[in-house]
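Training component of the fellowship. As part of building independent skills, the fellow (R.M.) carried out the full modelling exercise for a liganded target. The chosen ligand was 2-acetamido-2-deoxy-beta-D-glucopyranose. The inputs are recorded below so that the supervisory panel can assess the work.
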Amino acid sequence: MASFVSSAILLLFMFSPIVMPLPLSTNSRWIVDEGGRRVKLACVNWSAHSELMVAEGLSKQPMDTIAKRIASMGFNCVRYTWPVYLITNDSLASLTVRQSFQRLGFVESIAGIQANNPSIIDVPLIKAYQAVVSSLGENNLMVILDNHISKPGWCCNNLDDNGFFGDKYFNPDQWITGLTRMATLFNGVTNVVGMSLRNELRGPKQNVNDWYKYMQKGAEAVHSANPDVLVILSGFDFDRDLSFIKTQFVKLTFSGKLVFEAHWYGFSDGPRTWVTGNPNEVCGRVATYMLKTSGYLVDQGYPLFISEFGIDQTGANVNGNRYLNCFFGVAAELDLDWALWTLTGSYYVRAGVVGLNEYYGVLDYNWCAPRNSSFIQRISGLQAPFRGPGLSEAKPHKVIFHPLTGLCITRKPFAHRLRLGPCSESYAWSYSPHKTLLATRTHLCLQADESGTSAKLGIFCTSSNSKWEMISDSKMHLSAKLRDGKSVCLDVASDNTIITSSCKCINKDNTCDPSSQWFKLVDSTRSSTSV
Ligand SMILES: *[C@@H]1O[C@H](CO)[C@@H](O)[C@H](O)[C@H]1NC(C)=O
Ligand SMILES: *[C@@H]1O[C@H](CO)[C@@H](O)[C@H](O)[C@H]1NC(C)=O
Ligand SMILES: CC(=O)N[C@H]1CO[C@H](CO)[C@@H](O)[C@@H]1O
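Fellow's submitted model of the complex:
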């Protein structure tokens, strides 16, 4: 009986929603809740900015089912896109969902929405948009309203006339009106925690003066209509460049609400950069670029939200796969907030293609199940915060994070071998000035034995085989020297045990993939079950 009661309590604890004390604000580089405790945004993008202006997927599944799937995949938030016209263009805004589909001739989708989400089929578009926000709220998911574009349609290219203030479809006054109306509409809706003012600025008109002029104006407009939301600002060149903030601060009349956002995809590093280059060299180079253009902001005391990143989840795109290993390293090391592109399993229509299958989507074509469950496993390694205000009592330590799997080095209680496991069960390490990796609260350190054999915890911590250098341009290989002077790198065997093996493609070679040997020492204060 007692054990029944306690397991019932445990179950209740596990499945009762964790209600965050909202609204959110910022404390230096961290986003925090009302109690000052860090909230890490682990979001997924859900788009509603196509010509139809309806959240994708509602013809496939009920919105509540979709919201529950988002939560069950471990995300705590949605970056939910909207076009300015949704709320400023009377002839479009007055359409119902049915009319919006009829206007463009998507009759099958109407039947699907009628079947799966009958309550929204005959309501105005904005009501349907609000219904999705409520449904996400009922499932304890935070929402960031993202102004993705002005004129509804697939986004983005340099010449789509939606790229920068003053472009044909990007009238700054209309944009401010749109932001004000959205901020007002969602004032008091507690799960709406932020507004991303404009997605991916781009095109020939980009300039710093207009950026400050309009972004500051937009931020003030949002804040005065809804002081509870975080105000999120994006940079130039498809949100790849915020380097200009270094020399000129954003001046606002309010504080504690400003967040920056940046995007990083493998294809934005160049369509074939990762396949034609050596992964260590490319990672070293693009990570440096990212730190210079946006990553530096966290050191300056601003939260940075990587609001788009992602890969083709079939694993077929080598360029994307290699990039993602590098991305995971940086995202873990800086413990960034993020939003994955994308939730969408398939679109009603994207750039003219009806029912387009979205290989970057976490849901499958029919929005029924994860497209790739191993990807969901992997991304879970970035969902929980490693550190930040108010999180736990554990002393600062390092975890050894493995980007390829999203796992950390740990050891099962009483087991002999080190292995990869969930970061919540990570060993706590310290990395000494002598480059030893000590398992904290023990006198044991990580040691290389022979190449191809398990790495061990040992007690003789001064020899070269327990001195771990971070080598290569990526700085992600942990390398030690054996007694015979040969260098080996930390690696992972197919059963997830930690071994050493000869260091892979440290430079030049572009045919080989070193990612099984990539590790990041990540600062953590998360209490762990294994120490
Ligand atoms: C409203 O949208 C329609 C359809 O896209 C467009 O033709 C019209 O120019 C828009 N009006 C304004 C004021 O933006
Ligand atoms: C899931 O992703 C992995 C890693 O990229 C890949 O090997 C696998 O084939 C993918 N599975 C599916 C079902 O696409
Ligand atoms: C993978 C993908 O299609 N990403 C797109 C997501 O949306 C942005 C606009 O915000 C596009 O530029 C990306 O190409």
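The panel noted the following from the submitted structure. The longest strand covers residues 142-149. The two ends are 31 Å apart (CA to CA).
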